[in-house]
Specification:
about 250 residues; alpha/beta; Rossmann fold; 6-stranded parallel β-sheet; 11 helices; about 40% helix
Length: about 250
C-alpha cells in the first residue's frame, strides 16, 4: 500500500511545487513508483513537468466534477513520476464542491483505486486553505510543510498547523505531520538560521534534513519542463533533494 503525502502551505512562493517535483524524481531514482497530484488551479506542477494543460482532454477538474475516472487522467511520462494534471478549470471545482455533501472526501475517494499501484503519491496543494487543500489533507497519510526561511513564511507554518488540527478533528484523524521542509535556504544569513530554529522551537515542528539551498538552477528548471535533478543533477539543491528523499524513505 502506497503512502500519500500532502505538501501544503497557504503562503505562495515557498517552493511547494519544486519540492514535490524534485522529490518525485528523487524517489524514482530510488526505484520507487511515484504519482504526483497537481491540486493547484494554477497548474504549476503540470507546466513544470513539460505538459500543456490546455492540450489535455481531461484533468483533475474532470475528476472532481465526476466526469471521468481518476485512472483515465493519469499522464505517464517516458521517465520520472506519473502525474494527475491540473488546469485553470480546477478553480471552478471549489465553487462546485461547496454545494456537495462529503465535499472534503472527493479526492480521497478518487485516489483510493490508485494507492496500491504506487509507493508514493505526492500531492501538491495550492497556496490557500480552501476546499481543495482540505481535500488534499483529508486524502493524505502524512503532511509535509515546505517553508521559506523568512519571517512571513514562518507565520504561515503556524496557520497551517491550526488547519491540520481541524482536519484531524473532522475529516482525517489519522493524518500525521511528517515534518517541515526548509526551502530557499541561504546559509550565509543569520535570519535563515534564526527562522529554522524558531520553527522547531515555537511550533514543535521537526524540520526534515537537509535544508534546500537557494539556487538559480532551481528557478531555471521549470522552464525546461524538468526538475532540478534532471536540469542540474550535480547542483547543491539536487543533491539536497536526493538526501531529503532518502530521509523521508527511511521514515515512511
Amino acid at each position: 500500500m502506497g503512502s500519500t503525502i500532502a505538501f501544503a502551505n497557504q503562503k505562495g512562493g515557498v517552493a511547494k511545487t519544486t519540492t514535490v517535483h524534485s522529490l518525485g524524481d528523487a524517489f524514482v531514482e530510488l526505484g520507487k513508483n511515484v504519482l504526483l497530484v497537481d491540486l493547484d488551479p494554477q497548474a504549476c506542477l503540470t507546466y513544470a513537468m513539460g505538459i500543456d494543460p490546455e492540450a489535455l482532454e481531461s484533468t483533475m477538474h474532470d475528476v472532481f466534477a465526476g466526469r471521468v475516472q481518476t485512472k483515465d487522467v493519469v499522464v505517464e511520462l517516458d521517465s520520472g513520476p506519473s502525474l494527475l494534471p491540473s488546469s485553470i478549470d480546477l478553480a471552478g471545482a471549489e465553487v462546485h464542491l461547496l454545494t456537495k455533501t462529503g465535499r472534503e472526501f472527493v479526492l480521497a475517494r478518487a485516489l483510493k483505486p490508485l494507492v496500491g499501484h504506487y509507493d508514493y503519491l505526492l500531492v501538491d496543494c495550492g497556496p490557500s486553505l480552501g476546499i481543495l487543500t482540505i481535500n488534499g489533507l483529508t486524502a493524505a497519510d502524512l503532511v509535509a510543510i515546505p517553508f521559506q526561511c523568512d519571517t512571513l513564511s514562518h507565520r504561515g507554518v503556524g496557520q497551517l498547523l491550526e488547519t491540520v488540527a481541524d482536519v484531524r478533528a473532522f475529516t482525517n484523524d489519522d493524518l500525521e505531520i511528517l515534518g517541515g521542509v526548509a526551502t530557499l535556504f541561504d546559509g550565509r544569513t543569520r535570519l535563515a538560521h534564526e527562522v529554522l530554529a524558531a520553527v522547531e522551537e515555537q511550533y514543535g515542528l521537526h524540520v526534515l534534513p537537509p535544508p534546500i539551498p537557494k539556487s538559480v538552477r532551481v528557478a531555471e528548471a521549470p522552464g525546461k519542463g524538468r526538475s532540478v535533478l534532471a536540469h542540474a543533477k550535480s547542483s547543491k539543491p539536487a543533491l539536497a533533494y536526493r538526501e531529503l528523499a532518502s530521509t523521508i524513505a527511511s521514515k515512511v
